[in-house]
Amino acid sequence: MRPRILVTGIPGHYTRLANGAHGLSVSYSERQKQPETKEEFLQELRNISNTGNYLIGEGALRAIAPHAKQVPFWHLYNCSKNGLGLEEFNANFDICVFTCANLLRKGLSADAEAEVLSKLKMPIVMLGIGLQNRRDLENSLPEGTKRLLDVLKEREHYFLTRGFETAGFLKDQGFSYVQPTGCPSVYFMPHNMRASLKKLPHVNVGKARTIFSGYLGANHDTIVDAQALAPESSRPQYVIQDEFLHFDMKVEANGDGRVYDSASGSMLGELSYPGTDRLKTAFDIRTFFDTNQWRAWASSMDFNFGRRFHGSIIAMQAGVPSLMVAVDDRMREMLGYTGLPAVDATDVDKAENRAEFVADHLAGLNASELTDRYSDRERTFRSALREIGIGQ
């Protein structure tokens, strides 16, 4: 008999339309949101914190058996805290898949996760779990996260990690079923992912219409990227993920009271962030709350040069050749496991001619090896899901 699968944790973009839940039932609005005022736009960002996270929930749900039921984490948490409890879920499900990201990090205490998972009396699959910086965790693991790990030690558990470093950390904590598989977003639309890899050696750097992603408002790295790689007389394209929440990027409404155009994903009004004076041509900045809209727009572009992992993955899902810039340990772990094409930030930043550096790197790539490595990792991921009993 197939297991009854509960999926929760990081959601896909579809949960934006959830307007209520009772027991096992979740209701969804038929009206698409149009968060065009400043207040509505920023609240929509706060709801997910980082729009790239939508790819995690989407990729997980697509990879898991189709009879799985997705329940928003906030509903489980509310049931746990308001006295209703989770017995109805325990009676109707056999296993829980908890989709996550860099959950193991110094600045995050996983109190809510520990609260909910302690009351779910079933095996738990921690899908896509990763760490931010192992040295930080070895010195000061947050109390809520310690409790979460203790909860998981008390029952059958499965850790499918973002890479080898997280797997090593969890094994050192005494966990038995730990397997690196990468982020589930990497295996969504695999045919397009492979197509993007095959195109990489043929990118015409400096003339290709390029998508940029990074940390506008925090540093000038992406500005320098755009100056070097964007075609002359064109507006460089930049996609927002969380810059308005966590970095020094601001927006003010235009004369119509709008900061955002829902149809195109374009930012309106007055945008400001450090480094704008360095740009010859201002970025054309977009935000997407719907991953289908994001991919559709990305598919019209020629190349992605990204300092954000998921901002680059979604371009690859659209078949766009992408080269990532590894900027931190979290990203290096994911790239190191998957073998997706990347250059390290230190190497890019010290290159005398950034366009030549990128062009030379792309020309030296072996597309067949890249696609073979990707296909091998995809097989490992899907085999792990089937082994646990939750795969298609």
From TrEMBL:
Protein origin, superkingdom:
Bacteria
**Ranges for the Polysaccharide pyruvyl transferase domain?**
50-328
As one GO molecular function, the record gives: transferase activity
In terms of InterPro entries, this protein maps to:
Polysacch_pyruvyl_Trfase (IPR007345)
Q: Name one Pfam family in it.
A: PS_pyruv_trans
Protein keywords: Plasmid, Transferase
State the protein's name: Polysaccharide pyruvyl transferase family protein
Q: Which organism is it from?
A: Sinorhizobium chiapasense
